[in-house]
Amino acid sequence: NVFFQEKPFVLEDFESVEYKGTATVVHYLSSETAIKNLNKFRTAREKKNAPDKKEDKAAQLEWELTVNELLDDLEKWVPTADEPEVDVFAQKCVSYRSLTREVPDGPLRATVIRAFLRYLANSPMQKNSFIEWLYHAKWFVEEYPVLFKEVARDFPNANFEVLISTANALGRMAESKPS
Predict the structure, then answer these.
(1) Sign of CA pseudo-dihedral 15, 17, 19, 23
(2) How many angstroms separate the CA atoms of 94 and 111, rounded?
(3) In sequence order, which residues have a C-beta less than 8 Å from that of residue 66 and are 6 or more positions away?
């Protein structure tokens, strides 16, 4: 055992453990707005992915309209008095990431990516909680390096420039991951 070389844990060490109290369940999506948006997203995704709707142009158009509604909802969502800004930031980023993954490559994905990068570029979390901000921005660079580089140019941001320069130096931008 790496941590306790003198006396590693054995099964008997855990036989007399006494558990007190009950566990508190904490839901990641705690905001009413986040839950409402998630339900709208799931319903629309299930509908568009239904086997009989895959080739249905009306169903796909409805999906695109819902994605655009969700983007509007995300843009308008501001923390309420009982919602810490960092929590709303994390929940919004997860929503943007989910949308980015779900939309196919093309104009709709570019719209989602543009909205996400606009949000990141203007977020006060760059100063208030840089590590949290960097986590989501770095995800973007790793998942969609070419699109990040292309779209980030539209949002002058020193942190984006550093991410692009770092990725270029490491050769990551040259590796074209599917976008």
Answers:
(1) negative
(2) 16
(3) 40, 41, 44
Q: Is 165 exposed, middle or buried (0-12, 13-18, 19+ CB in 10 A)?
A: exposed
For 148, the 3-state DSSP assignment is: helix
Neighbours of 96 (CB within 10 A): 22
Look at residue 1 in the predicted model and tell me its pLDDT.
Answer: 43
Asked if 168 contacts 152 with a C-beta cutoff of 8 angstroms, the reply is no
Cβ atoms within 10 A of the Cβ of 7, count? 8
Q: Would the pTM count as exceeding 0.85?
A: no
Task: Report the 10 Å Cβ neighbour count for 112.
Answer: 23
- Give the contacts of 68 (CB within 8 A, at least 6 positions apart): 111
Tokens of 59: 């169903």
Tokens standing for 157?
A: 């941001």
Write the CB contacts of 177 (distance below 8 Å, at least 6 apart in sequence): 143, 144, 145, 146
Q: Identify the segments of the chain with pLDDT beneath 50.
A: 1, 176
Joined together, the tokens standing for residue 132 give 């949290």
Q: Which residue type does 18 have? A: E
CA distance 132 to 130: 5
pLDDT at position 162 is 92
Coil, helix or strand at residue 85: helix
How many CA atoms does the CB half-sphere of 73 hold within 13 Å? 22
